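Worked problem 6 (solution included).
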Amino acid sequence: MSALRITAPATSPMLMRLADERATGAFLRDQGTLYLVEGRVVHAESPAAPGIDVLLTAGGSLPRQGWQESLTLAGTRHEVGRHLVDSGRVAAGELEMCHLGALYDAAFFVLGPARGPTRFRYGVAHWLGRVRPVCAEAVERETRRRRALLDGIWPCADVDTAPVVPRPPAPGQTLTGRQRALLRLADGVRTPTAIAWALGRPTFHALIEVRRLAAAGLVEPPRPRDPAAAGAALPLPVPVDAAAPDIALLRRVRDALEATL
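Solution. The predicted structure is:
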């Protein structure tokens, strides 16, 4: 077996062992599934992430009927991806882009903190088939990078699963196009995941924008789930420049104080 080249602790040592063994099958967790062929990840699915069908139909140019026809005709042969390209419904580049987007998005949740047992079913194949296999080490590395990126923006993960409740911007604050699109669907009930599904975009993109909005004081902070944690203030990013008053920072301090009430 080849030596592993992981410079940081693996989020799943079991996945690394399976990759080293060149295993084929389904890596199962409560958060979703990774599909392996000869140790490489060929697809990933999670309830927290829109699938490739959503990215292609809601966010791409493929009609829903075209997707369903390809799934019916090629699903049992595990060649849906090839059929989409061969039939001219989807360009090879678009399929690859959406496939990698769905794979990394779902893998981020699958490789998150485990809430139950991890299992592996040998020999299980996914109906999509091979599009662009990714080495397990790259999936691990990207998952760690994404976690660090989110925590660097706003180190409170509760906003990832809470309903998004907008706040009016302070004078001088502006929103990006992506943030405006997200906030148009923020009705106080939808979570970032629900908004991502509605937009036909990867959930991780929604998490990035929600954490940026939280850091800017443009969404309501979620209340602590555990009453015992009500006395703990929310962690605050270190301000880049303290020479002038930072309105966003002041709003975050206020939010942390409000969370203790």
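Discussion: Residues 92-110 form the longest helix (19 residues).
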